[in-house]
Amino acid sequence: MDLGIKGKWALVCGASKGLGLGCAQALVQEGVHVLMVARGQAALQAAADALAATAAATGAVVQVCAQDITTEAGRAAVFALHADFDIVVTNAGGPPTGDFRDWDRAAWLRAVDANMLTPIELMKATVDGMAARGFGRVVNITSSAVKAPIDTLGLSNGARSGLTGFVAGLARSPLAANGVTINNLLPGAFETDRLRSNYQAAAEKGGESLEAVAARRRAGIPARRFGNPQEFGAICAFLCSQQAGYINGQNILADGGAYPGTF
Questions:
Q1: Which one of 56, 183, 212, 217 is least enclosed by Cβ atoms within 10 Å?
Q2: How far is the C-alpha of 40 from the C-alpha of 179, rounded, in Å?
Q3: pLDDT digits (tens, 9 = 90+) for 193-204
Q4: Are 81 and 67 in contact (CB under 8 A)?
Q5: What region, left, alpha or beta, does residue 11 occupy, with left being phi > 0 and alpha being psi -120 to 50 degrees?
Q6: Structure-model confidence comparison of residues 59 and 262, the more confident one
Q7: Which residues contact 192 (CB under 8 A, 6 or more apart)?
């Protein structure tokens, strides 16, 4: 299927590895020009270099910007490189796990700043331009914990739920009549560094092996496996497509069937 987005410009955050990289890969495969953003220069450049052959085949341009997108200075550096984006994929590393009794105000503000306010700032900077051009796609990578909260992920639960509520209103504004869709993509358990670090912490706390913790989690997923970043990226690319223009203001859950509810 031709997704109809060849030649569009995309900003993909957290693009050096994991789910962000999966999204960048899928968009480049569709001929989308991608500005990849992440904090680590070496990992980011290596990820971009690995996309060079695909980009050459599809005619895509791949640029990198090693910045912390959660800061004003980082966002300014990104928009200095390229101001107008047709596609924005927001993605920031989740806050630490733990007990809410141990989190002070500063910890909460860091979580809200990274996982709620940064996506809002990126949308604020781009959606009006999208509307003026008659096409725009925003995909916010959030978490399945928005749908089914996890007690040790309280910082993430709170901050990402705030973003979800904000998007519910913005997606139904006049932007929608001008071809701009805004959706949230909620990953469950995917093979990423974040997943491994969470399971490592759980293993150390429970006196188990990492393999035992991972096996127990896989057993609780109907698909009996973790997802991979490439299939996540494919979902993201479809949400950015011309064909997905009637999908707006939705929370798309990708978790192998782990969520047990009907709605």
A1: 56
A2: 34
A3: 877 887 888 888
A4: no
A5: beta
A6: 59
A7: 17, 18, 19, 229
